[in-house]
């Protein structure tokens, strides 16, 4: 495969991995909603049957009567159910993701190496922290633990401020009028969205690293996305080349929704052939009207680093990305963007990802 075709395939594949996560995420959120809605209905019944003195005790975190102990037991079962169901649903799609990612790389690089079992790849990824030190196994512990605390606080505060039991449950669930986006549960849904996508990206990246090691690639080049949404850390890392065994090199993803990847290169210089895409805007391509895309969407030489591409953009985009203070420093020439430190919504199934990659392979004659 020509280097340009290889780079194109890896970039397109990385975008499709994000879409693949959308399908897995829907399964997890469906379980989250089902379990939570069932328990909220029961919670409303239990709260309705509490006496005034029991409500007062509950507002103080006391579970002194049988009825109050039933409330506590419900909360225990609710969040225990989430703690079991969500990780199980996550693993169902994470294992085949790891297997497919490994198989994909052996085909792209035409390497005849044995692909490890999916569970082995997943366990390896679980041992490595991502996005600020979180482990994959910590993911749902944090989400369910935070939600339980918010639910208990909402119950206590609701009682203390004179809300009805219906209003308390509504605070947790949200209102139909607002499509339930105004409840405490929606905050957890957003957390699930962010953390699950990031964890799946971590699993894909760790699988890539494991396979690069098996393929004996010595040098890895950082490839960030040339657009207005890339963070300053990744922008500064773009184009840097590291030894594959360098323990100090960044381990992507370094933050939620991180799109930066490593690609193997032949030497420390890291030269590649061909072009790479750019979007000179903070919007996704699909959100930019077609008559506005000229000059905003295109390609540049694959060796152009983010900092060099950024320096050619208009002041509006530069200031939007950097902010006023950093923009003034950048504009004065005192500091370049790589010196700043900062620590398509459609659903895609694994089969569809395989079909898309198969189409690309066919186009490339693989």
Describe the protein.
The structure is a single chain. The chain has 366 residues and is mainly alpha-helical. It has 2 domains: 3-198, no CATH class; 217-364, no CATH class. Helix content is 57%, strand content 7%. It has 12 helices and 6 strands. It has helices at 3-48, 52-59, 66-108, 118-126, 139-160, 165-173, 184-214, 232-237, 306-311, 315-322, 324-331, 350-363, and strands at residues 219-223, 226-227, 241-243, 261-265, 275-279, 297-301. A 3-stranded antiparallel β-sheet has the order 3-1-4. The protein is globular and about 75 Å long. The protein starts with a helix and ends with a helix. The model is unreliable at 342-346 (pLDDT under 50). InterPro entries: Phage_head_morphogenesis_dom, Phage_head_put. It comes from Acinetobacter dispersus. This is Phage head morphogenesis domain-containing protein. It holds the Pfam family Phage_Mu_F. Residues 150-254 form the Phage head morphogenesis domain.
What are the segments in which pLDDT stays under 50 over at least 5 consecutive residues? 342-346
From N to C, what is the helix and strand string? HHHHHHHEEHEEEEHHHH
Beta-strand percent range: 5-15%
Describe the global form: globular
Number of strands: 6
The strand order across the widest sheet is: 3-1-4
Q: Calculate the terminal CA-CA distance, rounded to whole Å.
A: 8 Å
Total domain units: 2
Protein name: Phage head morphogenesis domain-containing protein
Organism: Acinetobacter dispersus
Domain Phage head morphogenesis: 150-254
InterPro entries: Phage_head_morphogenesis_dom, Phage_head_put
């Amino acid at each position: 495969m020509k280097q340009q075709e290889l780079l194109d395939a890896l970039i397109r594949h990385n975008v499709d991995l994000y879409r693949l996560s959308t399908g897995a995420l829907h399964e997890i959120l469906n379980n989250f909603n089902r379990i939570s809605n069932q328990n909220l209905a029961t919670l409303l019944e239990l709260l309705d049957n509490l006496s005034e003195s029991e409500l007062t005790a509950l507002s103080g975190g006391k579970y002194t009567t049988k009825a109050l102990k039933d409330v506590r037991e419900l909360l225990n079962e609710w969040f225990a159910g989430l703690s079991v169901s969500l990780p199980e649903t996550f693993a169902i799609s994470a294992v085949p993701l790891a297997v497919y990612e490994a198989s994909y790389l052996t085909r792209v690089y035409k390497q005849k190496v044995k692909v490890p079992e999916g569970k082995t790849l997943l366990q390896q990824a679980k041992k490595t922290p991502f996005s600020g030190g979180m482990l994959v196994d910590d993911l749902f512990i944090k989400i369910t633990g935070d939600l339980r605390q918010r639910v208990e606080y909402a119950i206590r505060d609701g009682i203390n401020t004179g809300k009805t039991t219906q209003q308390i449950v509504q605070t947790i669930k949200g209102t139909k009028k607002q499509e339930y986006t105004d409840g405490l549960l929606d905050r957890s849904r957003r957390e699930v969205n962010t953390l699950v996508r990031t964890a799946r990206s971590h699993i894909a990246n760790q699988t890539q690293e494991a396979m690069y090691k098996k393929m004996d690639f010595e040098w890895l080049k950082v490839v960030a996305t040339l657009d207005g949404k890339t963070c300053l850390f990744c922008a500064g890392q773009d184009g840097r080349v590291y030894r594959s065994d360098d323990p100090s090199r960044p381990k992507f993803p370094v933050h939620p929704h991180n799109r930066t990847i490593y690609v193997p290169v032949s030497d420390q210089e890291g030269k590649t052939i061909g072009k790479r895409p750019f979007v000179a805007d903070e919007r996704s391509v699909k959100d930019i009207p077609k008559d506005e895309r000229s000059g905003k969407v295109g390609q540049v030489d694959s060796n152009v680093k983010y900092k060099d591409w950024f320096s050619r953009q208009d002041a509006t985009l530069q200031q939007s990305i950097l902010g006023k203070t950093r923009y003034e420093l950048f504009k004065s020439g005192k500091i370049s963007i790589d010196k700043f430190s900062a620590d398509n919504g459609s659903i895609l199934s694994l089969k569809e990802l395989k079909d898309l990659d198969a189409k690309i392979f066919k186009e490339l004659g693989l």
